[in-house]
Amino acid sequence: MEALPSLARLLLALTIFSSLSLLACSSSLQDLQIANAERRIDVTSHIIKVFLTLKVENTGTSPVSEVLLAFPPTQVDHIASLKAAVTIGKKKKKSYVPLEVNPTELPDAPNGTKYFKILLLNPLSAGETATLEVLYILTHSLEPFPAEISQSESQLVYYRDSAIILSPYYIKQQTTFIRTPSTKVESFTRVEPTTRAGTELKYGPYKDRPAYSYSPVLVHFENNSPFAVVEELVREVEISHWGSLQITEHYTLAHAGARHKGVFSRVDYQGRSSGVSSFKHLLARLPPRVHSVFYRDQIGNISSSHLRTDYRRTDLEIEPRYPLFGGWKATFLIGYGLPLQDFLFESPDGRRYLNFTFGCPLADTVVDKLTLKVVLPEGSKDPSAVVPFTVQQHLETKYSYLDVVGRTVVVLEKKNVVPEHNSPFQVYYSFNPVFMLAEPLMLISVFFFLFMASVAYLHVDFSISK
Ligand SMILES: *[C@@H]1O[C@H](CO)[C@@H](O)[C@H](O)[C@H]1NC(C)=O
Ligand SMILES: *[C@@H]1O[C@H](CO)[C@@H](O)[C@H](O)[C@H]1NC(C)=O
Ligand SMILES: *[C@@H]1O[C@H](CO)[C@@H](O)[C@H](O)[C@H]1NC(C)=O
């Protein structure tokens, strides 16, 4: 008889608790408002950088520990990287502390809005304000229009966004600046007040906009920066305990700008104002102390490359066999060696680790799909990778000549990679030095058998005429 009332009480308590937590959840959205927002959108290259400064204010009564960022569903798929930091101190003593950002979902998000959640270092108490700096990178967000141009034409593109920042919070005051590569702006949507000066387009200031305000704008402007997109990049980093790191990179490069119309004329191309949106040279930034560099395509070695080195880095300037116009592709291979002691270390627990740079060595390129393969020495065990952002991982086995049991390959995959992803990552593994002897032993036995075979051959008389 006692059981029933206590169950009822438990249910009641649960109901109260869940409705309370629902209240807490929904109220934190109303508790925050943005006192001031400033957004700077840089569309000078095909990799768009957006700097957003938010002055967040807690106008509620309870502390708030997270701030939401909202994006239209069409934009969220193009976000390659999103970072947030909080500013501490004022003026000259200002410093930035990075904050954790994670994608998140809200029930009944209007019009499919997508969210990212910024976790604050310390909860923002009632009445307090905090200044957040957000940087996000958009790729494939400039649409060439016209979609096809001839060799003598300049490239024009569309950029779409909202003049008013999409936010789940009330915004007291906001301004958006769009920086274009040149003063050649064909047209732009006006959402008063809108002003244009030089290469800068200013939307706002707008005052007192409710949550989820949205006002689409279209900017049509000239952009002749190289739209270099590596559709697929496979980088293989092979560790040999015999002193070197061998890197091989397979590129499928495309010009993602307006498609080339008509025939390509090399004579016209020599002229100055021709093929302004095409690109001829590419710069690969490699680590210092590289050796045995090669650069080749299906036809063979390409000699038109220049190597400049200093103690900090190596610049490899490569030139494909033909200039790349919109819609054109080139596939090629770059390979180089590096001294092992610059990249392979021993961790305090006795394991070895490779500390190398993720991303793509080509400057200002977007990589649609990057596969990074780290080939560990034969006999390596328990590999684990530490990468500062989410990547897909799996293991493979590679066999090359002289291998007895094969080599473990740590495969890391990431889509939508931009230069911001060129940061260090580590692959840890344990290694038994006995395996270092495997290769020489194999070599010795191969030579021994060859020797025995030749001795046998010399001693066998094949002649039939005696
Ligand atoms: C959703 O989209 C429709 C049509 O684009 C628009 O009229 C409406 O205001 C939007 N609703 C919200 C909450 O943004
Ligand atoms: C291409 O270059 C590599 C490295 O410089 C060299 O080993 C190879 O022999 C060259 N191949 C041809 C066909 O020239
Ligand atoms: C990896 O190398 C970078 C510099 O290239 C260095 O800043 C970082 O501390 C290294 N990480 C580890 C775990 O050794």
From TrEMBL:
Keyword annotations of the record: Endoplasmic reticulum, Glycosyltransferase, Membrane, Signal, Transferase, Transmembrane, Transmembrane helix
Pfam family, one: Ribophorin_I
Pathway note: Protein modification; protein glycosylation
GO CC aspect terms: oligosaccharyltransferase complex
Topology relative to the membrane: Single-pass type I membrane protein
Keyword Transmembrane helix set for record: yes
Family: Belongs to the OST1 family.
Name of the protein in its database record: Dolichyl-diphosphooligosaccharide--protein glycosyltransferase subunit 1
Source species: Rosa chinensis (China rose)
Lineage: Eukaryota, Viridiplantae, Streptophyta, Embryophyta, Tracheophyta
